[in-house]
Amino acid sequence: QVRLQESGGGSVQAGGSLRLSCVASGSTYSYNMVRMAWFRQAPGKEREGVAAILNDGGTRYADYVQGRFTISRDNTKNTLYLQMNSLRPEDAAMYYCAAGSIWNTQGDMLSVLRYGSWGQGTQVTVSS
Q1: How confident is the model over 41-50, as pLDDT tens digits?
Q2: Measured between alpha carbons, how far is 125 from 91 in angstroms, rounded to an integer?
Q3: Cross-sheet strand order for the sheet of 18-26
Q4: Tens digits of per-residue pLDDT, 69-128?
Q5: What residues does 118 pair with on adjacent strands?
Q6: Beta bridge mates, 72
């Protein structure tokens, strides 16, 4: 099983930036991490996909972060990143890192069904 640990959350003003990191440990074989993603969940709302990246570097973004957020991964360090720029109050949420294996076959790249390993989350607060 892959263990994921997020960091980098915090409080910023609208328009500011944050960079989230997620370090993977445990069974970090490529077949366990064919895709990785960031999700977020605000109080009272469902968990939603923010951005995802494949082993080959292919990416997908939710419309509401396109052009503002950038997902990247360093496979040599088993680390996933999310650079968040031009933050808005509506971006405030708990952000979760997720890893999907070759056996997670349901849903699209931004669906929770596509991921079997999850971190504990890191809180992002954006003030107006």
Answers
A1: 999 999 999 9
A2: 8
A3: 2-7, 18-26, 79-84, 69-74
A4: 999 999 999 999 999 999 999 999 999 999 999 888 888 999 999 999 999 999 999 999
A5: 98
A6: 81
- Phi-psi sector, 34: left (phi>0), alpha (psi -120 to 50), beta: alpha
Instruction: Render 81-126 in DSSP notation, one character per residue.
Output: EEEE-S--GGG-EEEEEEEE-TT--SS-TTSGGG--EE---EEEEE
Tokens of 3: 């263990």
Beta bridge partners of 1: none
For 95, left (φ over 0), alpha (ψ -120 to 50), or beta? beta
